[in-house]
Design brief:
single chain, 8 strands
Length: 250
């Protein structure tokens, strides 16, 4: 994670006892954008296809190159896969290996994040696109809890070219390549651009958490970290290790 994002660690005594409220307020900023996007999915004028993915947002130039360092060669996109729900996500470059659970909308119309008692779990918006299928799949995770870092604490350290592996319920692994990493401040947050599909011919993925710096006045983070990736390969899930047999001493 950047030096700026590490400035307010979870073990700061000034945040003791308030971390959960801090995270909740930051989530409110993120989820408000998801709520707007979710409304766009369900209203009759959305213009969605059968995948539930929004149409590509109006763009100028190579949007996928935003945040991409010069000289980083990226692979060609792989053809989208058949839909299958996610079970695990691995981001080796930042040491993330986490279970994925489907999350829906709460009574306020926002996507429920993973429960606070499961800080190392990633939430997938189950009302949207399955990872690997055409469109954009959304993964969200907490950055911290009131006592320790959470699953996406190091997300801002992800770099273009990094691989993200999503193990799916059908035994396949959707392999994504990161092409864009952005820290988007609250005043620049545009739900359609953040969550919208950039290239309708690809299967895309977004990993999202809180970022920026900690604002003492609002007791929230000032931005969101948004990692964008696209499908570049398909693999089979590694078989589970065989159980060790007990041996009796003679």
């Amino acid at each position: 994670m950047s030096q700026e994002n590490r400035a307010r660690r979870t073990d700061d005594p000034e945040r003791t006892g308030t971390g959960r409220l801090t995270t909740a307020v930051a989530w409110a900023v993120l989820l408000f954008g998801l709520w707007l996007w979710g409304r766009h999915l369900t209203d009759g004028t959305s213009g969605m296809g059968g995948t539930g993915a929004p149409n590509s947002a109006p763009t100028v130039g190579d949007v996928s190159a935003v945040g991409r360092p010069l000289g980083v060669a990226l692979p060609s996109a792989h053809d989208p896969m058949k839909p299958a729900e996610p079970r695990r996500v691995d981001v080796p470059s930042i040491g993330v290996t986490a279970p994925v659970v489907a999350r829906g909308l709460d009574t306020g119309g926002a996507v429920d994040p993973p429960p606070y008692d499961r800080p190392q779990t990633v939430g997938w918006y189950g009302g949207g696109v399955e990872p690997g299928a055409p469109g954009t799949a959304l993964f969200v995770g907490h950055v911290d809890t009131e006592t320790r870092p959470a699953v996406f604490y190091g997300l801002s350290a992800t770099r273009p070219g990094a691989r993200i592996r999503v193990t799916r319920e059908d035994g396949s692994v959707a392999v994504f390549t990161v092409d864009d990493v952005q820290v988007i401040t609250r005043d620049r947050f545009d739900a359609r651009k953040v969550y919208g599909t950039r290239d309708g011919s690809r299967a895309e993925l977004r990993l999202i958490t809180c970022g920026g710096t900690f604002d003492r006045k609002t007791r929230s983070y000032t931005a969101n970290v948004v990692v964008s990736a696209y499908l570049t390969g398909v693999a089979e899930a590694a078989p589970a290790p065989a159980a060790k047999k007990e041996t009796r001493a003679s």
